[in-house]
């Protein structure tokens, strides 16, 4: 376990991240021209690349690197009985209080104790109602009639799509316990408190993996999956002193959990949940057996055809929450006094130190000048690199300014084509983190980039 401190030492603030995200096209407010939609955000050109790369890295970690885990993409709309069986209709609630005067609505654990006791609104001093349970699921209707028979829910977690398909996957793919099913997809919750940018939203994405194990082996697998998930973030180059475990106390656990831990990240607003690892026991498959009338038992051929309902170990990470974590983790500002060498002058540079495998743009190609054939040469090089790398091309403004623009987008490598390139067929490779520059032969460039990506180690 790494050194844990409660003090946020990063340079990011939520204001800076939100403003950079908008300025550089990572994340925009949804329906901004109409004043915005609370709890919903749009991912711009750099944001969708970052989100896709985070999803890709998780998918690779789960499915490509584990022979016993397969993928699934289940639908968002499911039979409404699913949510009765899962316990969400009954239990997926927040206790809310309303102010009778200003009509504000609060989660009762989010207002000061003294206000709750005195039933006094923290905003206007008006009288508060008693707490009432409010279900977080979005309800809609399928078909033209808005009667109860046509009610469907937008799924509040992707997990249930996996449970209802668990038998299909065993049969079609001959899976043997222990095995896992991974899924990435949208989930929806009618969250009352949606502050802190994309941290808690009404529409978000999850990356969930459900691992089916023999009862009695669940605790061992639970520990193994906790270790693996911790190691994953280490591999991504995340600041490990910004991560810690938090075990849910028994009285705070979700209705399905036998045991539950969160991986928390030290965001600018403090330690907050990034991912949950849960021992869901046989709760879910047991309930689906009861509600569907279908036999969800596994027949274990390796144990004399013993029949049992598997236990489930779940790893559940927010994809959009991981985007926020990676943005905060990568964000840095540093004083630079590199006049001459980098051309950016003395100033404070903002840099996103993304791992190169996550960076939306891997390499930017920049001609030193637009004239004298340099632009054509640079363009030609970019076309060549495109097949293997995500590239950008920028010929506008002073070279130092262009480096700064790429730093802010988190581009780990810039390649500059200059007058010498015309004669010696070499280019300048500039590294985002150190701002060092080296001369590389054009023919060696792709190989050098691949090596740099593979061997990347974050130093700051
Ligand atoms: N299937 C279990 C489950 O959904 P959860 O702890 O409610 O567990 C798992 O959610 C993860 O999903 C959280 O750790 C978080 O990363 C993400 N998440 C949950 N609610 C979210 C919201 N309203 N906005 C963004 N991400 C959310």
Secondary structure: elements and pairs:
Layout (H helix, E strand, L loop, with lengths): L13 H10 L3 E3 L11 E3 L1 H20 L4 E3 L9 H5 L2 H4 L1 E6 L6 E3 L5 H6 L13 E4 L2 E4 L9 E4 L4 H5 L2 H8 L5 E10 L14 E11 L4 H18 L7 E5 L11 E9 L2 E10 L3 H10 L5 E3 L5 E3 L2 E8 H12 E7 L8 E7 L10 E5 L6 H13 L4 E3 L5 H11 L3 E5 L1 H6 L1 E6 L5 E5 L3 H10 L6
Parallel strand pairs: 3-9, 19-20, 19-21
Antiparallel strand pairs: 1-2, 4-5, 4-6, 7-8, 9-10, 10-16, 11-12, 12-13, 13-16, 14-15, 17-18, 21-22, 22-23
The structure holds glycyl-adenosine-5'-phosphate.
Number of helices, where a helix is a run of at least 4 consecutive DSSP H or I residues = 14
The profile of the biggest β sheet is: 7 strands, mixed
Return Rg in Å.
26 Å
Average pLDDT reading: 94
* Small molecules held by this entry: glycyl-adenosine-5'-phosphate
The shape, in one word, is globular
Structural class: alpha+beta
Strand numbers in spatial order across the main sheet: 3-9-10-16-13-12-11
- Got a strand count? 23
Uncertain segments: none
Distance between the termini: 20 Å
What portion of the residues fall into strands of 2 or more residues?
A: 25-35%
